[in-house]
Fold this sequence. Notes:
- One of its GO terms (biological process) is amino acid metabolic process.
- NAD(+) binds at residues 180-185.
- One of its GO terms (molecular function) is nucleotide binding.
- The active site is at residue 80.
- The chain is built from 17 helices and twelve strands.
- By secondary structure, the protein is an alpha/beta fold.
- It has two domains: 5-65 and 76-140, 3-Layer(aba) Sandwich (Rossmann fold); 147-345, Rossmann fold (3-Layer(aba) Sandwich).
- Strands 1, 2, 3, 4, 5 and 6 form a six-stranded mixed sheet that branches.
- It is globular and about 55 Å long.
Amino acid sequence: MTRGVFERQTGHEQVIFCNDAESGLKAIIAIYSTALGPALGGTRFYPYSSEDDALTDVLNLSKGMAYKNALAGLPLGGGKAVIIGDPQRHKTETLLRAYGRFVESLGGRYITACDVGTYVQDMDIIGEQTRFVTGRSPQHGGSGDSSVMTSYGVYQGMRASAEYLWGNASLAGRRVGVAGVGKVGRLLVDYLLHEKAKVIITDVSPAAIDRVKQAHPEVSVADDTAALITSGLDIYAPCALGGALNDDTVTVLTAKIVCGAANNQLAHAGIEDVLAARGILYAPDYLVNAGGVVMVEDELHGFDFDRAKRKVSTIFHTTKEVFTLAAAEGVPAATAADQIAERRMMHAAGAGYWPRAAELAAH
């Protein structure tokens, strides 16, 4: 049964349904919070089976972005958008331009970026209709592919986890399993091998595995994720789909640290407690994979790669801060990360961001 926005009681500030008959655009923009600043979050283009499914996804994703941006220390709120349709069949310039006009009509309350089904070239088209877009190509003043910084942030989170658990941030000699070696996972492998870690990979795509093996013949390959997580790992890095940590996997996981790029790794509430009970240190996904959003946020100031990388490096310190708070409060790291993000949003509530929005609009 379809449930309305108010009935769900999610705490969102604003949800906008966008319809353009000429282009066939059907989109939903959800703004969870603007306490810390404009709500930044990507646009997902996906063939949802129903409008209710699309609404559920955008509400969950936008809340997640608010927490991610707050925990990363960014002057941004959280939002997200979904376009309903198959991007291979329904994505057109006309549709993207119509969507850009809806984003512009919000006057800076929402800033968009890439997500599943949307790419840098799409942001360039959207950017012809709105000032409030990031993730554009370098030719259009953007930062380009954000996977570069996403992987670097996960690497920093992994180093922080190692230092917290083992007293040394070095990953040399550690057995690290990477599940999913698309763009982010493949770049993470580069960092790990540079530090002389022993890397084992798996992926549903043989082509993705071949790309890594061609560049790094020394990498081992597991048949699948089930084989990977039981292969005597020190660190497990889920870098593919969400829900990687579920009732089945956490009971057989051999790693002492979980730190990866995948979103929504915890299959359901309570999994973090099982990890903690087994003595497995979990680095919250939205903490360590925030490098991409840090990178696109830097575009708002005129993108500078070195400056963005310095910002992403702070994920190391934030990860240790989360673990320290978790130990002091006697709660899982995921709970501690939520507490830090919530405190930052609560502290900023009521401060407003409109001078900043006006500043962005002037660019």
